[in-house]
């Protein structure tokens, strides 16, 4: 058995149908060689200088994780706006809901947000991550009855193989409840050529695999999320870092400068996913400088 792979000429409907049945699908030749080469040349040198993550259970100590990607390669925009990815995420996440505004029964169509983006480079010797669901960040409950929170992408920057830690996926696990434990022997490795991508639901159990090869495996992951899963007021744009820093830590955390055990709210600094409170409390400037010029 293998994760189902389809050509990039498939329709959004075909892709969504497979995702809702299996939890994920591979799209062959998801991006062009040109975009792939730009991603490699923009991110490769930064990854070369990025230390391995320091946390061993989930993030891996032989794994490099690089975020803030929109300030590191403009080609990330081509990944986010790929019509099959964006189209599938819209079809899965943007179901209209109805609310009463006084006597008006108003239809609201949920929007999408990019929830995270990260290059993940698994080095030889790294063992597999624990199987998990990426909608854990929202503490989403299952079964979702079709009400999903997140549509995740894993783009192969190098070839993904069983030997080099190609993402492990448990087909059908998006339908399980929260009592059922995922078993390692239920997972299939994602094998795909560089430029192809796995798209999967936030409710699908998966994990980075063990890299038994002699070269790093590089992937680029991104989440498109239901846009309402956020703070209502955009504190990050309206409060200057020094104003936030002038409040007690309890207020800083309540405002959102914090991370939970469910990984909600991390920032990437020097390859580590850290609690933003660390930057606020030791006076380092936020937001962090990027590597791209604006404009
Ligand atoms: O690197 C991979 O293949 C998967 C990584 C992953 O699932 C995660 O870090 O949440
Ligand atoms: Fe994950």
Brief rundown of the structure:
By secondary structure, the chain is an alpha+beta fold. The protein contains eight helices and 14 strands.
Helix and strand arrangement:
Blueprint lengths: L4 E2 L5 H11 L1 E4 L5 H16 L14 E4 L9 H5 L2 H11 L3 E5 L2 E5 L3 E11 L27 E7 L11 E2 L18 E2 L7 E5 L4 E2 L9 E10 L8 H4 L2 H5 L3 H7 L11 E3 L2 E3 L2 H5 L14
Parallel strand pairs: 1-2
Antiparallel strand pairs: 2-10, 3-6, 4-5, 6-12, 7-10, 7-12, 8-9, 8-11, 13-14
Helix pairs in contact: 1-4
Task: Tell me what you see in this structure.
It is a single chain. This protein has helices spanning 12-22, 33-48, 76-80, 83-93, 235-238, 241-245, 249-255, 277-281, and strands at residues 5-6, 24-27, 63-66, 97-101, 104-108, 112-122, 150-156, 168-169, 188-189, 197-201, 206-207, 217-226, 267-269, 272-274. With 295 residues, the chain is an alpha+beta fold. It has two domains: 5-98 and 107-226, q2cbj1_9rhob like domain (Jelly Rolls), CATH 2.60.120.620; 235-281, no CATH class. Strand 4 (97-101) and strand 5 (104-108) form a beta hairpin. The longest helix has 16 residues, at 33-48. The radius of gyration is 19 Å and the shape is globular. 36% of the residues are buried. The model has no long low-confidence stretch (mean pLDDT 95). Bound molecules: 2-oxoglutaric acid and fe (ii) ion. The site of fe (ii) ion has 3 residues, from loops. Fe (ii) ion binds at residues 132, 134, 206.
């Amino acid at each position: 058995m293998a994760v189902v792979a389809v050509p990039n000429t498939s329709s959004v409907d075909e892709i969504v149908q497979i995702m809702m049945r299996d939890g994920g699908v591979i799209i062959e030749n998801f991006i062009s060689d040109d975009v792939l080469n730009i991603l490699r040349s923009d991110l490769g040198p930064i990854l070369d200088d990025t230390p391995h993550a320091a946390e061993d259970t989930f993030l891996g100590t032989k794994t490099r994780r690089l975020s803030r990607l929109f300030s590191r390669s403009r080609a990330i925009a081509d990944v986010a706006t790929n019509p099959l990815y964006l189209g599938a995420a819209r079809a899965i996440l943007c179901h209209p809901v109805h609310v009463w505004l006084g006597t008006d029964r108003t239809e609201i169509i949920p929007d999408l947000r990019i929830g995270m983006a990260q290059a993940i480079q698994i080095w030889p010797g790294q063992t597999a991550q624990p199987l998990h669901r990426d909608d854990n960040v929202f503490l989403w409950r299952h079964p979702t009855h079709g009400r999903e929170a997140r549509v995740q992408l894993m783009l192969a920057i190098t070839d993904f193989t069983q030997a080099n830690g190609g993402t492990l996926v448990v087909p059908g696990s998006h339908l399980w409840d929260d009592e059922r434990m995922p078993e390692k022997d239920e997972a299939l490795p994602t094998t795909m050529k560089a430029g192809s991508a796995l798209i999967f639901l936030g409710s699908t159990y998966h994990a980075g695999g063990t890299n038994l090869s002699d070269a790093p495996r590089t992937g680029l992951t991104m989440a498109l999320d239901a846009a309402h899963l956020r703070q209502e007021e955009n504190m990050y744009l309206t409060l200057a870092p020094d104003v936030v820093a002038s409040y007690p830590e309890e207020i800083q955390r309540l405002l959102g400068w914090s991370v939970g055990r469910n990984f909600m709210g991390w920032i990437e600094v020097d390859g580590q996913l850290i609690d933003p409170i660390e930057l606020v409390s030791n006076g380092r400037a936020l937001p962090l400088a990027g590597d791209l010029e604006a404009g």
